[in-house]
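Protocol step 4 of 6.
Sequence for Galactose-1-phosphate uridylyltransferase (Microbacterium sorbitolivorans) entered exactly as in the expression construct, tag removed. Do not edit the line below.
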Amino acid sequence: MTANAIDAVIELTGGVVKRSSRLADGRELIYFDDPDTTLPPERRIDERDLAPRPETANMRRDVLTGEWITVAANRQNRAMLPPAELDPLAPQSETNPSEVPSQYDVAVFENKSPSLGPALALATGDVPQGDDAPQSLDDLAAPGLGRTRTAIGRCEVVCFSPERTGSFGTQTVTRARTVIEAWADRTAALSALPGVEQVFPFENRGEQIGVTLHHPHGQIYSYPYVTPRTTTLLQQIEKQGDDLFQQIVDFEQAGPRVVLEAENWLAYVPFAARWPVEVHLVPRRHAADFTELNSAERDELAEVYLRILGGVDRLYDTPTPYIAAWHQAPVNVGRDTVRMHLQLTSPRRAADKLKFLAGSEAAMGAWTAEIPPEVGAERLREAIG
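Step 5 output, structure tokens:
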């Protein structure tokens, strides 16, 4: 066994270098080095004695909505706010047998307690891996009581930094650019996996959101179906027109809810915002996902996104919890009409108050917004500016 665990090295755009490796139980681990990294090219081998990976979870179809619900019992045992000295996302040390063997800039690895996977459909599509794997989108849409499928797919963890505290918004512009490059690389790789229909990068920030680790990180889910939210979006595009996102850009650009304008990006509070803090960020030209952003758009995104997150944190004296959801077009449908965009939302409606979903919202999906979107936009503009 050699001292270097790296299997392959690839130089990406922006000077970012990708180094592929494996963890002790076979999970994929990828290091993304900053263009100005001070790290050596070698990485340590993961020498832990790990238990076998869990069985792939099961999905059940909700006959009332047509949605698929994953039942992943293995997630009951995932890490829950461990002490800083046992941070599972920090680089390994003699006293901390964490998930990342070496020092790193950005690291991505397969989740040990995934909602989806580790099984995938076979590339041939003839004999799917795992019992009762989805056969196609038509198969998933078929009616019937008691329908189940294997929850094939993949869930990955994206570590933004080796530091034990922080979030995406606490990173430098250079580091933010490296993470964006990692998102693009993983979107391409995960979209190519057999059985994957949609790739979703996101960041949960704050214990009020349900975060179980304080380490600055996000996740990427690769679904074997098109998510309910995107299915609804596709239906709206069919009603409103294939150029719906350009319509939105033109409409919001001319209105009072813009919070930040850049050459390639527009940030705004949407006309019908649900949450007390809600901001969308969209590229001015069509791009289905991160892979379709050019280098200039990725460079500018690093700066624009950090400015937005900085503004969100300046709304109050303490950090604001949020979900930063990067909506991307599905792998096989809607590529020419669904434009990638960020939807950042927070339930924080005052310094010491959170919005909890009431019966009408949680049970019926009928929302009431307490803060007018125009007021929310004005506050964000001031905080960002």
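Step 6, annotate. The chain has two domains: 8-225, 229-384.
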